[in-house]
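#data-curation
PF: Archiving a pair of folding outputs for the training set. Convention for this channel: one message per protein, sequence first, structure tokens after, nothing in between. First:
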Amino acid sequence: MPTYESHTRDPLPASDRLELPYEIRQKSRALVRLESGLEAGVFLTPGTILRGGDRLLGDDGSVVEVVAAPEEILEVTATDPTDLLRAAYHLGNRHVVLEVAPGRLRLGRDSVLAAMLAQLGGLVVEERLEPFEPEAGAYGGHSHSHERRAIHGPGSAHPSGSARIHDFLK
């Protein structure tokens, strides 16, 4: 089973693809299945967030392209920019993970939040099935760790450096 521990900018074409929802792309350790059906392990620096288009280098020299999987999301728009700012304020107060783009906010599908947004007025809230690329966060959330570094911790690696399967399940 190959493991992927770092990003790469290698111009070689990717040998496989890895389609993941945001929930998994924000984890530093995961047991995944590549598009080809092959199981693989992902061990990244804590805090790394994988983004669609990222490329990971495997311990076997392979390169995989990360694809942001379509997810059930809410897309919020407004005619008046102040209404959209008000929505962002209220969602931020609830620590909702948001994708921010010109003229719109996107968040994971949630009926309670959809009802709250409807009560605010002036907003159009639509359900969509699309890739979700939320903000990384202001306090240390980052993406694209390009240094090759294994994740180490209690029980996280054999002396040889290869991971144990139970480490993926934490």
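PF: Second:
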Amino acid sequence: MRLARVTYRVREVGREAAVERIHDGGLLLAWHCYLWILAINWAPSHYTALAGVSREGKIISRTLERLGWKVVRGSSTDAALTSLRTMVVLLRQGVRLVMTPDGPKGPPREIKPGAVFLQQQTGLPIIPVGIGTGWKYTFSHTWDKSEIPLPGTRIVVYYGEPITNLAGMKRSEAIRVVNQALDDANREAERIHKRRSLIP
């Protein structure tokens, strides 16, 4: 992963503004299929990753830690109230938490309620993060169609507008807002990537 990172050409759009907004804590959300890109682009990182408690989560956790990440194990699903309470405490302490809200098992690109709950409880911003890539290998047999960019690939990481207004919304409406923001961020990342790919 470290060797591949050296070959990538990464352009980050809106990162400075996003980092400033979550200086005192917040959430960065991206789809699970981009986990490889997120892991190496933000490593070593001042962010904290949420990794699941499953066998897959254990493997991901160990990999992230070796890349220099801080990792908290838990789940963001409704059944994991203890984990959610722990994350609320961490966020209020200023942690910047990275989540793939459609994990750990999908459906792909459909967020679970956990991120919405955390924003509503803490008032801290959610930053939707979109990814645009060129050459890549897609694991078509996995639930999320995980992507690994090939060496030399140009990658765009796009940081969308912060989401801070979920308090008072019904859960279903808040989920729709965040889902739409993530889809919009990915479309924008792909648009920027395509535009730059056309430049000689």
